[in-house]
């Protein structure tokens, strides 16, 4: 006797449209949008009911194999909401937007990022891969342009010539990454979601997101690994 899904209203539709055009939204933006949509369409608004509101949208997206998912930014630990295509998890979603050799460059970049110690790959290392592509080699200039597009489209983010996976990419591809990089992909020991940018215990090898590390060690007099209790040797 599953309860009937709550009605989709114009407020829900507007929320979905705006989120679709952004691809991903920071939590505070999503909360503002929630309020704004309810006010415009004179729908009941409760500031602490965003997740229920999104739940209603999700129940109507289910037959379309879409879902609004919540994820955490690895940089600052803030919540983000992204619209995820469940039917085309993996990289198929990208296949309609990019050429084969661009996709290959993305995959190779992802390999570098996930196998790295800290979750970053340098532009030098990525550009060195451009002329080794099997599909069709890329000149450095062209590869630089493609990386720029991946950043604009929120698959990668870049800081001082170092690339990592954008929060949107992690929310969309978490399952793909966990199943395709089983020996390399780590879950955060604290929040249990995929940790790309992380600190890794030198003794037992568990990883933790930087925001989770900061939160966890705030309460500890001396930073020790939650798994093996060895001293945590990183700056926090």
Automatic annotation (TrEMBL):
Which Gene Ontology terms describe the biological processes this protein takes part in? double-strand break repair via homologous recombination
| MF terms (GO), sorted A to Z | ubiquitin protein ligase activity; zinc ion binding
What InterPro entries does the database record attribute to this sequence?
Nse1, Nse1_RING_C4HC3-type, WH-like_DNA-bd_sf, Znf_RING, Znf_RING/FYVE/PHD
> Where does the RING-type domain lie?
188-229
Query: According to the UniProt entry, what is the EC number of this protein?
Result: 2.3.2.27
Q: Which GO terms describe its cellular component?
A: chromosome, telomeric region; nucleus; Smc5-Smc6 complex
Q: Which reaction does it catalyse?
A: S-ubiquitinyl-[E2 ubiquitin-conjugating enzyme]-L-cysteine + [acceptor protein]-L-lysine = [E2 ubiquitin-conjugating enzyme]-L-cysteine + N(6)-ubiquitinyl-[acceptor protein]-L-lysine
UniProt entry keywords in alphabetical sequence: Chromosome, DNA damage, DNA recombination, DNA repair, Metal-binding, Nucleus, Telomere, Transferase, Ubl conjugation pathway, Zinc, Zinc-finger
Kindly list the places in or outside the cell where this protein is found, as annotated in its UniProt entry.
Chromosome, Telomere; Nucleus
Its primary localisation, in coarse terms, equals: nucleus
Q: Which Pfam families match?
A: SMC_Nse1, zf-RING-like
Q: Which family does it belong to?
A: Belongs to the NSE1 family.
Q: Assembly and interactions?
A: Component of the Smc5-Smc6 complex.
Record's function text: RING-type zinc finger-containing E3 ubiquitin ligase that assembles with melanoma antigen protein (MAGE) to catalyze the direct transfer of ubiquitin from E2 ubiquitin-conjugating enzyme to a specific substrate. Involved in maintenance of genome integrity, DNA damage response and DNA repair.
* Full protein name: Non-structural maintenance of chromosomes element 1 homolog
Which species does the entry assign this protein to? Trogon melanurus
The opening ranks of the lineage are: Eukaryota, Metazoa, Chordata, Craniata, Vertebrata
């Amino acid at each position: 006797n599953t309860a009937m899904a709550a009605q989709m209203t114009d407020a829900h539709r507007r929320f979905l449209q705006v989120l679709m055009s952004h691809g991903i939204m920071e939590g505070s933006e999503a909360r503002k949008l929630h309020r704004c949509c309810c006010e415009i369409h004179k729908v009941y608004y409760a500031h602490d009911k965003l997740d229920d509101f999104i739940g209603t949208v999700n129940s109507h997206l289910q037959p379309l194999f879409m879902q609004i998912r919540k994820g955490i930014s690895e940089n600052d630990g803030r919540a983000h909401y992204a619209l995820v295509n469940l039917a085309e998890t993996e990289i198929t979603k990208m296949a309609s937007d990019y050429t084969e050799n661009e996709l290959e460059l993305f995959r190779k970049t992802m390999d570098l990022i996930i196998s790295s110690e800290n979750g970053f790959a340098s532009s030098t290392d990525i550009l060195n891969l451009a002329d080794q592509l099997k599909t069709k080699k890329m000149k450095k200039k062209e590869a630089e342009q493609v990386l720029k597009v991946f950043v604009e489209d929120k698959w990668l983010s870049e800081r001082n010539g170092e690339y990592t996976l954008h929060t949107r990419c992690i929310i969309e591809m978490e399952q793909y990454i966990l199943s395709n990089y089983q020996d390399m992909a780590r879950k955060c020991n604290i929040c249990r979601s995929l940790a790309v940018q992380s600190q890794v215990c030198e003794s037992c090898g568990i990883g933790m997101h930087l925001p989770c590390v900061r939160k966890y060690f705030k309460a500890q007099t001396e930073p020790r690994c939650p798994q093996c209790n060895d001293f945590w040797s990183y700056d926090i």
